[in-house]
Amino acid sequence: MGNKYEEARKEIERRISEGVIQPGERLPSVRKLSSELQCSINTVIKAYDQLEKQHMIYSVPKSGYFLVGSHQTINNSQTELIDFSSAGPDRSRMPYRDYQHCMNQAIEWYKEEMFHYSEPLGLDVLRRQLSKQLQDLQVFAPSERVCVVSGSQQALDLLLTLPFPNGKDVICTEQPTHPSFIQSLTSRGLKVRGIEMTNKGIDLEQLERIFHETEVKLFYTVSRFQNPTGYCYTNLEKQKIVELAQKYDVYILEDDYMGDLDMKRKADPMFAYDPSGRVIYTKSFSKVLLPGLRLGVAVLPEVLLDSFAKAKFAADVHTPVVTQGALEIYLQSGMYKAHIQKLRRQYKRKGTLLKQAYQKHLPKEAAFTGGESGFYSTIELPKRMKARRLVNHLKHKNVLVQDATNMYLPAYRKENRIRLSVSQVKDQNIELGIKKISECISELL
Ligand SMILES: Cc1ncc(COP(=O)(O)O)c(C=O)c1O
Fold first, then answer.
1. With contact defined as beta carbons under 8 Å apart, do 49 and 251 qualify?
2. For domain 113-333, which architecture applies?
3. 429-444 tens-digit pLDDT
């Protein structure tokens, strides 16, 4: 099956690159191709699935597979794929080679550490380095409270399972929110309360009512560049949320996954308004470095350190030592700071282009959130328009966007939102992409 599958995939790629199949054209049916290539139907389906994952082709239910764009058309912006759906960082900007260098050095420098199990909460040298770096973000905490995690998702997930000093058990979260967090909540079957997030943020009076009426253990909030809305709280809003948490004995789980990218130097994290431990702070290296490294950091209150270390040990013993060591070298050398400066400018530019394009093209029946520097923004479609339908229509126009339905808990679900990420879209394609989306919304109206 392995070889046959490779042969089938290569044959389809050959036909595409030689122009036998043109962009927008239907590919041979699974049955036809399996008989032509003398392989099983499953082999062809697997090859098509793989090419779909690479966004070379797309499928239309009951119609078959279609070619998105071929290699010959890659420079033609009218037919080039514009991918607003990928949540990964811009690969052309990622410091892959620099990090490779740090990994090589780390294998040498941290050799001894590799021959035994290490500390669940991370290498001391890295924790100290992170404690220093976090000060740039107004997060002041001793290294003993700074924990290295295998991606910030691990900290979010583990914290949901731990008993908290307030003895409460309901998780409150913005709606919509980061889909991996939704997965954690639903797969662990926890009690949840949602609060609607709009282009004006959340209703603080409603938040107070929730804190007052419900046994809220923690409020999960993405305080800057929220996923998916792109919303950034003002300092005043952050301060008020922290005050409410103090008043009602609620913990805040502040996911500052892209805090590094904030150009507003006066913007504080919620952590800065209560560094004593009421606010648990997490940050990710996935969007600013490489998601495959699975590196994140959590700043915990002292009272949770012991139980968190046990949960982390049970989950994966510790985060791999070489990646930790490489991060320490990368941070300490100053490469990280230089890299972040460049990224900030890049995302700021993309954000400005996106916002201008929204203002110019989006029909009045639709509304957008976000569009600051950062990854994400959403479009709210007219009430009766299902995001799923728009997503499929846009595929035919070589534009990929994400249906935001799975970014809601079932009880708060809205099916008329799409999420856009500008990270992988070339600057010159942002306006064209938004124009196509706007036209498509108008057509469907
Ligand atoms: C809100 C939010 N938090 C965290 C992350 C990253 O998580 P991790 O560090 O586990 O890759 C993402 C990634 O998309 C995100 O959107």
1. no
2. 3-Layer(aba) Sandwich (3.40)
3. 999 999 999 999 999 9
